[in-house]
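Table S7 (text form). Paired inputs.
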Amino acid sequence: MPINITMPALSPTMEEGNLAKWLVKEGDKVAPGDVIAEIETDKATMEVEAVDEGTVAKIVVPAGTEGVKVNALIAVLAGEGEDAGAAAKSAAGAPAKAQAPEADAPKQQAARAETPKAEVAPQPAAPALKPAATNGNGAAAESGDVRTFASPLARRIAKDVGIDLATVNGSGPHGRVVKADVEAAIASGGGKAAPEAKAPAGAPAQAPVAKPMSDDAILKLFEPGSYELVPHDNMRKTIARRLVEAKSTIPHFYLTLDCEIDALLKLRTELNTAAPMRKTDKGDAPTYKLSVNDMIIKALALALMAVPDANASWTESAMVKHKHADVGVAVSIPGGLITPIVRRAEEKTLSVISNEMKDLAGRARSRKLKPEEYQGGTTAVSNLGMFGIKDFSAVINPPHATILAVGAGEERAVVKKGTIVAANMMSVTLSTDHRAVDGALGAELLGAFKRYIENPYAMLV
């Protein structure tokens, strides 16, 4: 009996993925545990192993295909003693798969955006919900209980510029309004404004809802030929979706303070100097090399243990109080960023945190992290100090209730006991979900963090 191989769900939230590469070809024999394909999710590239033994009878979804839904058929195995040809025929009735992207898709999109053309083959018009009265040109008037026959693109452009399609003469089949008709109406100054929908008598007035500009409206703002279109990959789409979700659903509250880091820098130098050496392929190397960010991770984890009410996540039914500090760390990678997590950071030594972060960051940049290594967590750190940024506010990454934005350490003039002296200072901003961590609680957490940063030896006991 043929064995179907389907697109696996590589994380609890995965809905689709890109089939990056097949590591087998039709006719190859596979055994349980053999790596047969690489799947790209929004954050990582994962290897897919065979579960059953058999011969690859048919590869249904070719390498390079994007947007393959979870549980969609991607290949068929022929079982032991089964004819591969017969097994391959079982894939013939499989649902249509997502199309592999064309190599010159960006160029084609750019050409379409830069060179307006009349639509040659309009899509079939949606049927009118009620019998349509014609407006003299074969199109149905879009007023009252009837609607104008128009292509989706023509409707979108007309909506963006406020033209009533019922006043536009259609040149398409059966008087259908197409893109060229709307553009002609815009150029001639014709076309009436679309009538505004009126609220029922007695209904309360509602404020207008701002809507994002359509792609076509945005492209019209730029000179043709002055740009190129680069399609979004899954990572960028996911980042955009989650940022919109975070800023539209989480009431952000910001707290900023300055930390003196002279003692921390001194301790870091002492610990790195005392690091034991080990043999490597490139010669002797220290067993660890601490960064300031490693010490920030530890300080934030200990602060959350000192202020446990701030180590929480908001849900509509209950507050989630976490028992450990799982600290995510924002890592910039090509095309976006990812937040690998140092689990139970409060229990780990600085050297363990340092080596773990180097491993996580390296695999993050090559998109080799497992979902459990970047999903979840109780808080996060975003450090732009290495870019010279003095201070900034970071966006909370759900389900976290806090994120710490870390600026550059710099020498500043400060007043100590009435005397102006130089000190290395670092500005940090804590973003909190005000539903879970209000101002006073956030201030308490940030105060605990400052104490560990300015008295770093406390992180060693």
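Next pair, protein 2 of 2.
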Amino acid sequence: MAKYEGADCRLCRVEKNKLFFKGHKCLTEKCPLERRPYPPGQHGRSRKRVLGYAIQLREKQKLKRFYGMSEEQFRFFFERAERQKGITGENLLSMLERRLDNVVYLMGFSLSRGHARQLIGHGHFRLNNHKADIASALVKTGDVVAFRLRSAKSEDVQAVVASNRSKTVPGWLEVDWENLKGRVRALPTRQDVTLPVEEHLVVELYSK
């Protein structure tokens, strides 16, 4: 992940709309979009502003890439959010935050969401003391996410934990570093989503 984020984030330089191709780097001042807020190339400064459908599409792409999802997966989540009571956009963000791979990353048990998906797929976690190998599974209030006992003793896991102990964990989650497990205290709200995204544009896109 470090190598991935260290590369030149040229694809982020698009009309001040970050697509998060480089993960966490796009949230920092090191993102080239912050240093050079216009598209790359000889005519980057003179490109016309993008409006309408293109902006809606970019907001969707931003969410997809941030959470590491395919179009099929994303549409499935949107349709589920649409069937729920409440505001569709906020429902969607809450569901995306509750994905197991995202929760593992936010708890500090992985280096990135992609790394979390890899660990989950290899069976290193248990959810409520049951095997958890589906990264897209949704957690709910009271759920406990923990490393398998054997996995917790791994040198790689210990290194990840050591580097993330000082990480700030969102208020809707809590982490027990000594036992390498975390608990979902509450369902995430719109205020818990730190990604700068206008979710209503995604709803408008799919509503056409």
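The chain is about 40% helix and 10% strand.
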